[in-house]
Batch of 3 targets.
Target 1
Amino acid sequence: MNKQAYKQRLEALLLDLYRKKAEQKATTERFQIEGFMEAGLLSEVVSNADLQELIDNTHFKVFGISYNARNLSDREWIDIPAYIREKVIKPI
């Protein structure tokens, strides 16, 4: 898989996740996305910076604001993975 195909697939996964309503638990999708991101990093298809840019852009497409501007109380519907909490990349 090349970098462009990888980014397109990850964006599609993120869009599906972000469009779910807060009351809908997205556990399966979240784990799939985390694994997909980790695979991209390990195979060196993308960097942390690539992932962060894609997450930020996709978040903006769905919510119309940056992640940082969005109310953090919306996090109750998604658990934040440890590698993200440790500031490797911002939450999805």
Target 2
Amino acid sequence: MPEDEKICKDFVPTAEQIAIIELLINPDDMRPAKAKCAQVGIAESTLWRWRQDPAFNKYLQDRVHKYTDSAVADGYMAIIRKMKMGDIPAAKLFFELRGEIKQKHEVSGPKGGPVQHAFVCVWEGELDGSGAGDAAAAGDNPIPAALSADSNSSEP
């Protein structure tokens, strides 16, 4: 049994919990949580305490999913109506949602060239204050020639 099911198996919401959840998931009710709590007859701190309970949150999440699942058909129908009126972005969205169009994103560097990466090295002495990284500041190059940005030069 998945962990989510174990959490909610024995959870039975109270009448107040059911009432506040229905108000919280109603997209037409734009009031703040404080007003919704007052309508149900609970303190805002009570709702906060309930929201710390994984079982309450799982129940709330399940109610949101049931609510949104029932709205999927309405959403598709709205897109189809707009698509039938010649709305090209609606048609594109419809086919993207159905998986028939996939967006492709390419990333390129300047003038379409390859993306250039920069790597920054921080020497341990620069981090801990011991001065071990001070060789570079003194003019000595602590980076081996093979790792240097200018590896074609003859300097070590």
Target 3
Amino acid sequence: MHSRLYTRVLNQYGWVHSCSAFQSTFNNTGLLGISAACDPRYATEMLDVICRELETVTRSLSTMEVERAKRATVSIIHNALESKTASAEDIGRQFLTYGYRISGPEYVQMIESVTPADIKNFMARVLSTKPSLALVGEGAETLTDSYESLLQRFGGGSPHQAESKSSDGAMSRIKQSLRGLRR
């Protein structure tokens, strides 16, 4: 079971050294991104590949992919919660974020309620916000104009802004789900 980034980026471009998604959740906000490393000669192309992969999620996401991702997520959560340290850290984060602890079965229920449309709408909303770009290493100077192109592509009056309003329904359903689970 491989991620989209593995099958569509690492397996397709021999000059890519690594490519993975990451996320961090905070109160009322979060961080979502892709970290990639490549041969410096391909830095501009790497940025374009990453952008295309992010855009593709708003258009093309199968139920099978989402179901597979749900199973993987549930497995990761169960494995992580076997560690007392990870479990204690998770409990603290939950209290800081939600004001209460979410049980394992509640986590699974929340994950199982996610649909491909929810993910597409969420990504459209993410891509309508102002992006951040961090560059490190040899070849970074070749991307000096890249941030301007990112602003034009995402968050700067892009077509994704119109779609982002439809994600408000998905976000309110998730919030309602959290409130319902708390009772």
